[in-house]
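Sanity check

After download, print the first record. It should look like this:
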Amino acid sequence: MISAAQSHHSMDLWGPRRALSLKEARKRTALVHILRLVFTIGAVLSAGWLLGTIIESSFRERRAEPGAAGLSVTVHGPRFDGYDDNDRPYTLTALTAQRRRDNVGLVDLVNPQLKDAASTTVQAREGVWNAELEVLDLSGDVVMTDAGGYTFTSQKTRMYVRENRVEGQDPLTGFGPVGEVKADGYEVLDGGNRILLKGNVWTKFTAKKRPQ
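Expected structure tokens:
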């Protein structure tokens, strides 16, 4: 059997070890808390730096946008060549051309002029060319002339160049060898072989003079 003295001696031996282990555990716990705090602060600082960088970049891009949007290139004497659905060539020229920044498929034209294989010429003060769809919107003193000696004038005209079709919602005035015509709207079909007049149509025919 273990005597009381021996038991007391054993407790004396384990006591300092327990106290030492408790101190070490407390030190380790405190160290863990410190490391967690350091990592947390570091994560917050890193997140703040990253967020600040993103915000700063966003502001830089916004400050750069007005200057970039203001940049434009004007081409003098442009020329566009193409073919309609019947493989007939056409040529579009202008005084100047400027591609839009918000829609690069559209080109603003000054004094555009379109000529086709049938010697038909269409010109105006301004125009917008859709290169992808091959559609030309003309405005301001639109004048259309053909090989037969007919001239038509309007203020707005849309030309489906690929389809060789023309339509307009503004009043049209025309004159030629046969007479004069007026209408509120019009549509030119079949490559100019057929003209459809719409609204308040007025015509005046001129009789051909018989040779003497």
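If your output differs, re-run the checksum step. Summary of this record's structure: The CA atoms of residues 98 and 196 lie 33 Å apart.
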